[in-house]
Amino acid sequence: MNVLAIGAHPDDIEISCAGTLAKLVKAGHQVTICHASDGDKGHYRIPPEELIPIRQREARQAGAIIGSEVISLGMRDGNILADHEGNRQMFIDMLCRVQPDMVITHTPNDYMPDHLSVSKLVFDTTFLATLPKASKQYPNCAKVPSLFYMDNLSGLDFQPTLYVDITETMETKTEMLRQHQSQLVWLKEHDNVDVVDMMVTLGKFRGVQAGCTFAEGFIQHMVWTRPNAVRFPV
């Protein structure tokens, strides 16, 4: 099975669902990680032209830990617009290239504009990519993939409909997140948070809810045309 995880920025996926991705890889599934933006504004002192290659390298290093391809769509922080035709086409082309059976992305009520735009772009284009001639570069997607939303940062206003026990892959998840050293600095300075500690705390909390040591929570998008009979394969 092909699984595609799409975040707005490098590090979003590692924070919210990398434990599940690691588990999927161990189960024999193909996992691709995509971030829409290069994360050019995620540092107070490193200028964008220097930060972009740093963040690309950090993202590749994180994906390599579980053997996943990492795709960047090359957008810029703050400019991921959901109704922009060019942005839609980039998402459609990427989906047609990957041909996912399952997609994981941000929730529609996440905390910042880039995340919200990615959530809407993913919902829109996972359908649009199945239409004839959707992409000029790749065959149209064979089916509308199942869609899962990953946890909000700190779990605010997020009630999971599914939990994945990531106790065995928590160390891998932590190692993946630690590859994003530039963002450990940025989130501490911008949001006054130790993001690794926050991630571990949320994992423990979801674990308490799920009856295990560490867990990740998801909400499945339940609408017609989504293959809702497909079970989460972990």
Question: Explain this structure to me?
Answer:
Its EC number is 3.5.1.-. One of its GO terms (molecular function) is hydrolase activity. It is an enzyme of class 3 (hydrolase). This is PIG-L deacetylase family protein. Keywords: Hydrolase. It is built from 7 helices and 7 strands. The longest helix has 18 residues, at 48-65. 42% of the residues lie in helices and 17% in strands. The protein has helices spanning 12-26, 48-65, 85-98, 113-128, 170-178, 181-191, 195-210; strands at residues 2-7, 30-37, 69-75, 102-105, 146-150, 162-165, 215-220. The chain has 234 residues and is of the alpha/beta class. Helix 2 (48-65) packs antiparallel against helix 5 (170-178). The chain has a 7-stranded mixed beta sheet, with helices on both faces. It starts with a strand and ends in a 14-residue tail after the last strand. 44% of the residues are buried. The protein has a single domain (2-220), classed as LmbE-like (Rossmann fold, 3-Layer(aba) Sandwich).
Per CATH, the architecture is 3-Layer(aba) Sandwich
Could you say which overall geometry the principal axes of the C-alpha atoms support? globular
> How does the major sheet shape up?
7 strands, mixed
What's the CATH class label?
Alpha Beta
The mean pLDDT is 95
Strand content: 15-25%
Total helical segments: 7
Summarize the structure.
42% of the residues lie in helices and 17% in strands. The protein is of the alpha/beta class and 234 residues long.
Sequence-ordered SSE layout with sheet pairings:
Layout: E1 2-7, H1 12-26, E2 30-37, H2 48-65, E3 69-75, H3 85-98, E4 102-105, H4 113-128, E5 146-150, E6 162-165, H5 170-178, H6 181-191, H7 195-210, E7 215-220
Parallel strand pairs: 1-2, 1-4, 2-3, 4-5
Antiparallel strand pairs: 5-7, 6-7
Helix pairs in contact: 1-5, 2-5, 3-4, 5-7
